[in-house]
Specification:
Helix 2 packs across helix 5, helix 5 (182-199) packs antiparallel against helix 6 (204-230) and helix 6 (204-230) runs parallel beside helix 10 (328-343). By secondary structure, the protein is α/β, with parallel strands linked by helices. The protein folds into two domains: 34-156 and 176-218, Nitrogenase molybdenum iron protein domain (Rossmann fold), CATH 3.40.50.1980; 229-343, Nitrogenase molybdenum iron protein domain (Rossmann fold, 3-Layer(aba) Sandwich). It contains ten helices and eleven strands. A five-stranded parallel β-sheet has the order 1-5-4-2-3, with helices on one face. It has a two-stranded antiparallel sheet with strand order 6-7. Bound molecules: zinc ion.
């Protein structure tokens, strides 16, 4: 008996070593693929040019043959904002296409090649971009690239990862999903306006007009969303979700986050048995009226938890990305209506 368990422990350890070695090879592989352009850019949050962009022989405006400013973003939501502010003066490509989750999407080799030609790259930051995209931002940008991270400038909230186990505590982790609060989106729009203006000063007035028009729309939608959330009976204002995505609704509109199937800010993690047991306990304790299920994320587990706790499932929550043809304004309006209808 003793020798058997020793062998098991031994082979488990051996498998761990093999696993780590394989992971190291994978990481090395993705580094060497992008190492050719792996040096020399700065992270800037206010759209300033790097000194590289002034060097001889480079075009700091980064225009394509049609004279348009070419910009890369990491998510379909940022691309929507850049199209609004940049209008007919820009071409925009998102590393994560419409309909795909930026936490987990793996860009294609062609997308990475185009990224390395782009001199203005706009991301969310705060760890929103997962393990497939973050290394590209570190190692696959052009030497002249101006990199703008929107999230850190939006006064982000800290993530409470322990709420469902009852041990509230703020780790030093920020919640990247700031766009669920339109007033924070306003800050991001101004950053985008500043970045486009420094890359293309001739467009200053144009970008300013576009940004101001959109900021008015954001202010209107903020009022509309607020009244939607406030019409949910106060005893029902409780959210259970697939992952920790809706913290800004708690911070801005007073909806209470009860817990999530994946108690993490990214969808690439998985829940432990104890996470799930804690979640079931707190749903029963609070009598949370519904579980909002995100498409493609732990659907079987979520369905089982709903059965065990006799709670209804509301399908269709999607806040990370836009579908083809959808705008950010439509997405946050739709989210408010979905949550209102699920909790009323
Ligand atoms: Zn998320």
């Amino acid at each position: 008996m003793v020798s058997l368990s020793f062998n098991n422990a031994h082979s488990w350890k051996y498998r761990q070593i093999i696993f780590r070695f394989a992971m190291a090879l994978l990481v090395l592989g993705s580094f060497s693929a992008s190492i050719g352009c792996a040096i020399g850019f700065d992270t800037l949050s206010n759209g300033e040019k790097t000194s590289d962009s002034d060097r001889e022989g480079t075009d700091p405006r980064n225009v394509n043959t049609d004279g348009l400013l070419t910009i890369h973003t990491t998510t379909s939501i940022i691309s929507d904002w850049v199209k609004v502010v940049g209008g007919e003066r820009v071409v925009v490509e998102s590393l994560t296409p419409a309909g795909k989750d930026p936490h987990t999407y793996q860009p294609t080799a062609q997308q990475v090649a185009r990224l390395s030609n782009s001199n203005l790259v706009i991301s969310i930051g705060l760890s929103l971009e997962g393990q497939n995209i973050s290394p590209l931002l570190q190692h696959s940008l052009s030497r002249n690239a101006i990199r703008v991270e929107l999230g850190p400038q939006t006064n982000p909230i800290k993530l409470d990862l322990h709420r469902q186990s009852g041990q509230h505590g703020h780790r030093n982790t920020y919640d990247p999903h700031f766009w669920l609060d339109p007033s924070r989106t306003t800050i991001a729009i101004k950053q985008i306006q500043n970045s486009l203006t420094s890359a293309d000063p001739e467009g200053t007035d144009y970008y300013s007009d576009n940004a101001s028009g959109y900021i008015k729309k954001l202010s209107n939608i903020e009022k509309s969303i607020r009244s939607t959330y406030e019409s949910i009976p106060s005893s029902n204002r409780m959210l259970v979700t697939s992952h920790e995505a809706l913290g800004y609704l708690e911070d801005t509109y007073g909806l209470q986050i009860i817990g999530s199937v994946i108690p993490a800010l990214s969808t690439d993690a998985g829940p432990t048995a104890s996470d799930l047991a804690d979640l079931i306990d707190i749903i029963q304790l609070t009598k949370a009226p519904a579980i909002f299920m995100e498409e493609g994320i732990q659907e079987k587990v979520t369905t089982q938890i709903a059965r065990d706790t006799n709670t209804k499932i509301i399908e269709g929550l999607r806040v990370e990305y836009l579908n083809e043809g959808e705008t950010y304004l439509q997405m946050i309006q739709r989210t408010a209506e979905l949550i209102h209808n699920g909790l009323r």
